[in-house]
Amino acid sequence: VRSMTLASRPTGQPTAQNFALTETAMPEPAEGEVLVRVIWLSLDPYMRGRMDDAKSYAPPVEIGGIMEGGAVGEVIASRHAGFSEGDIALGAFGWTSHAALPGDALRKVDPAIAPIQTALGVLGMPGITAWVGVNRIIGIQQGETALISAATGAVGTLAGQLAQIKGARAIGVAGGEEKCAYATSELGYAACLDHKALDAAGLKEALAAAAPGGVDGYFENVGGKTLEAALSGMNDHGRIALCGMIAWYSGRGLDEAMSLPAAWRAILVKRLKVEGFIIFDHMHLYPEFLAEVAPMVKDGRIRYRESIAEGLEAAPDAFISMLEGGNFGKQLVRVGDD
Ligand code: NDP
To answer: Is the dihedral of CA 93, 99, 104, 108 positive or negative?
Structure first.
């Protein structure tokens, strides 16, 4: 069994030295457990938080511990009535080639719905995050304008398309010309602002031009100057789904951040409703989400894109790169053969 462990805690941006590959013996599944050969590993921004020894909504990874992560794999031995050899299962296997977990903690993946790795992306945790944020937190309505940051990422890709399905006009923010071109030509965004080409004032201006009627709902994934522009572009009584703030995850950009009094004031004078949410609290909605979104993924009405790193040893660099926008769509690692 090959696993990627946390060798040391990063200060600021993580580096390859924070990770170490280890080899251990193959585990035996205990009664009620399922042994899985991992095929796809998901890389997600929240993993940056797990590398710090700081209080959050989930405990950190221990030094020497296997990096946490959702993954999809093939059942190779089962001592759980719900799983048989050959089944495809989703679980928190971590950055590893094989893992034995209680069957009760796993979900079966139906390969007939879509490629199995979509259980980590558009039909998985990022997907339901987009769906809850757009429909339940913002509650976007027909004819409204929605702004989505990290617009071509795992969450943003679906958030933008779901907002359009609800009859809203979607405006994206993404890093670089290529991502912005994809956002407008493939994902249906009415406009996409390139945060790499614009400073805070430029972003505000570009947003005002792209959304002359103002923004009713903001799907917040990034913080930084994008948040600043969003606050300036919000309409009175607008709603913000506070999903993430990746621009600040490694302690970057804190010096240039807008002042808290200015942000607080914008929320007050515009009577905004801001709601933070953590998707764990909403997982009971998964069947409803899947029933609604899976058919649209299957028939191509919903598009998505993936960035694939080859092999567990490639995971650290792919993860570090993703935090800076190196991914284009859902970042995955192919750990084993499909
Ligand atoms: P993405 O696939 O969107 O990848 C992260 C993206 O963040 C990068 O590709 C990059 O896109 C963007 N980014 C990085 N730095 C900056 C910056 N300084 N300014 C603007 N954009 C930046 O990841 P996910 O879709 O998995 O996650 C998106 C957000 O949602 C994250 O903040 C994540 O933590 C959050 N999240 C929250 C959940 C919850 O329960 N609350 C659940 C799942 C995700 P670009 O190249 O366009 O800049």
So the answer is: positive
- The pLDDT tens digits along the chain (338 residues) read 999 999 999 999 999 999 999 999 999 999 999 999 999 999 999 999 999 998 888 889 999 999 999 999 999 999 999 999 999 999 999 999 999 999 999 999 999 999 999 999 999 999 999 999 999 999 999 999 999 999 999 999 999 999 999 999 999 999 999 999 999 999 999 999 999 999 999 999 999 999 999 999 999 999 999 999 999 999 999 999 999 999 999 888 998 899 999 999 999 999 999 999 999 999 999 999 999 999 999 999 999 999 999 999 999 999 999 999 999 999 999 999 88
Q: Kindly state if the Cβ of 129 falls inside 6 Å of ligand 1.
A: yes
What is the helix (H) or strand (E) element at residue 75, kind and residue range? strand 71-78
Nearest by Cα to 333 from 312, 306, 302: 312
Q: Where are the domains of the chain?
A: 2-121+305-334, 125-279
> What ipTM was reported for this prediction?
0.99
- The atom number, within ligand 1, closest to the CA of 247 reads 18
Q: Tell me if 254 CB under 6 Å of ligand 1.
A: no
The topology under which CATH files domain 2-121+305-334 is Quinone Oxidoreductase; Chain A, domain 1 (3.90.180)
- Using DSSP, how many helices (H) and how many strands (E) does the chain show? 9, 15
For residue 92, report the distance from its CA to the centre of ligand 1, in Å.
20
Under CATH, domain 125-279 is a member of which superfamily?
NAD(P)-binding Rossmann-like Domain (3.40.50.720)
Specify the DSSP class assigned to residue 29. P
Closest CA to 324 of 5, 22, 43: 43
Residue with the smallest CA separation from ligand 1 atom 4 is 153
Q: Which residue intervals of 211-301 are DSSP H helices?
A: 224-233, 260-269, 286-298
Q: Is the CB of 312 under 6 A from ligand 1?
A: no
- One fold for 2-121+305-334 and 125-279: no
pTM confidence score: 0.97
